[in-house]
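Reopening this ticket.

The earlier resolution said the output was attached, but the attachment link was broken on my side. Pasting everything inline this time so it's all in one place.
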Amino acid sequence: MHRDEDDELLGFLAPAGDTPGLVTPMTVFGYPLGAAQPDTDALRVLASTGLSYLAERWTLTLAAHPDPISVQIVEASPDRLTLQSVDYGHPLGYGTRFELPTPVDHRLALG
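Inline output:
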C-alpha cells in the first residue's frame, strides 16, 4: 500500500494462511502490524501505523552473540533492513550496523 499524497510505501497485506478473506498488515520489511483481519481493516492499520514503526526501538538477537541488542532502523525496504545499535552497554558497540534480509524473522522484535 502506498500513501496517496507522496506514494510512500507504507507496507503490504499478506494472506492469512488458510483463512479466506483475511489478511495480515505488514511493515515494509515484513513485520506483522496486527492479527489477521478483513482487508479494509488491515488497510486502515497500514495507513495509521505503517510508517511509525520505522521510528521505534527494536531488539535484535544474533545467534553468534547471547545478549540482545537495542537497535533502530536506518533504512527499510521490501528487500533488506539496515539497523544500527543504540545500545551503549552492548559489547558489539554503539553505532554498529546490521543488515537483515526481509521479511524479517524472529531475530527482530519490537521494544
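Reporter confirms the inline version is readable. Strands lie at 12-15, 22-26, 37-38, 57-62, 65-76, 80-85, 97-101, 108-110. The first strand starts at residue 12 and ends at 15.
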